[in-house]
Specification:
Belongs to the fatty acid desaturase type 2 family. Keywords: Fatty acid biosynthesis, Fatty acid metabolism, Iron, Lipid biosynthesis, Lipid metabolism, Membrane, Oxidoreductase, Transmembrane, Transmembrane helix. There is one protein chain. The protein is mostly helical. It has one domain (about 5-260). It is about 60% helix and about 0% strand. α4 (about 75-100) packs across α6 (about 125-135).
Length: about 350
């Protein structure tokens, strides 16, 4: 089998049936798989998805402290800004365009570390990166780890049910995982450690990075605005951590055909461009599927792309050594020919 066909741990209900059609499990099946994969007492190889959701659970008390103890309209505005724009844009900058697609390169390790830790640490890079390569190879097909056609919970719980790497990779295949992750700066387990823990990242290093990141940001927010601001922004990070798990379901039109002529040019899948994710996080998703390795996905004049603005700024100050920008290619291959075709149709109608 091809590497991307088996690099992810298949769910108990499988990716496809004997006829090759997508398996669409019931909600009960999805939740049984979810809780089985969080069971670290069954096997320690479940530690990474458990760790990922543990961080979300740890953020919930901060959210309630904000709502019931520290709430004010100014803190609400701060929470909105941090969850909707800062966390979302950082996810696009770091996890999406750099860790997965290598759309730009840092000048040195310092700037990579700086960008990685710009926000509160929530999503493990390993869970995001490897599965996202599979998503692009099998988008909206059986094997896509967040296939919107299988329903909301299939996507919402995908980080546990479908995105972790397989636990029985050969050493050769594990080395290919390492190649996909090496530029991120996340230190890899040895193959023997992978066989023990079932993951690329070591749990002790991941835990240490989590503790240090959260300690730094809580202290920083406290010094700026006391416990009120710190709890507000940590709660906002928790809100984002839950909300972001809905994105691919929405970004692939809930499994329906909602692409619009002149707006969504990539027709290999059901991805669509949406105004809200585009404005707040630079996630013009159909554009991204058209040019996944581009550091910019906001190609049209109205398509604000704050993730690209950060990358461009880092390039100006010398922190980013190079990046790929596919705007010109998009305009030449797709947008301008579309406009020309519409002008021709208009002239024909006028002449008739």
């Amino acid at each position: 089998m091809a590497f991307l066909d088996h690099v992810l741990q298949p769910p108990a209900y499988g990716w496809k049936d004997e006829e090759g059609n997508l398996v669409k499990p019931g909600v009960g099946e999805i939740f049984r798989e979810f809780f089985a994969r969080l069971n670290i007492f069954e096997t320690r190889k479940n530690w990474l998805p458990f760790f990922s959701w543990l961080k979300v659970l740890c953020l919930i008390p901060f959210f309630f402290l904000f709502v019931f103890k520290y709430f004010s309209f100014s803190l609400f505005a701060a929470a909105f800004l941090y969850s909707m724009i800062i966390m979302g844009t950082h996810g696009t900058i770091w996890h999406h365009r750099y860790c997965t697609h290598g759309a730009y390169k840092f000048r040195n390790k310092f700037w990579r570390f700086f960008t990685q830790n710009l926000t509160i640490n929530v999503i493990p890079e390993e869970i995001y990166v490897i599965s996202h390569h599979v998503h692009h190879a099998k988008s909206d097909q059986p094997g896509d780890p967040y296939n919107a056609e299988a329903g909301f919970f299939y996507c919402f719980l995908a980080d546990v049910n479908h995105q972790p790497i397989a636990k029985n990779l050969t050493e050769q295949d594990y080395n290919r995982v390492k190649l996909l992750m090496s530029h991120t700066g996340i230190k890899a387990n040895t193959y023997e450690q992978y066989q023990k823990w079932g993951s690329y990242v070591n749990p002790w290093r991941a835990t240490m990075a989590w503790v240090l990141n959260w300690s730094f940001w809580y202290l920083t927010f406290y010094l700026i605005g006391g416990h009120g601001l710190a709890c507000t922004l940590f709660g906002a990070a928790g809100f984002w951590a839950v909300g972001v798990r809905t994105f691919n379901y929405e970004g692939h039109a809930k499994g329906e055909d909602k692409q619009r002529e002149g707006t969504d040019f990539s027709q290999r899948d059901k991805s669509i461009n949406q105004l809200w994710p585009g404005f707040v996080a630079g996630e013009w998703h159909n554009n991204h599927h058209l040019f996944p390795k581009s550091a910019r996905s906001g190609f049209k004049a109205h398509q604000i792309d704050m993730a690209f603005y950060y990358i461009k700024f880092m390039s100006v100050i010398g922190a980013v050594s190079s990046y790929t920008d596919s705007k010109k290619q998009f305009l030449e291959q797709y947008h301008l020919p579309y406009l020309e075709s519409k002008n021709v149709e208009k002239k024909v109608l006028i002449n008739d």
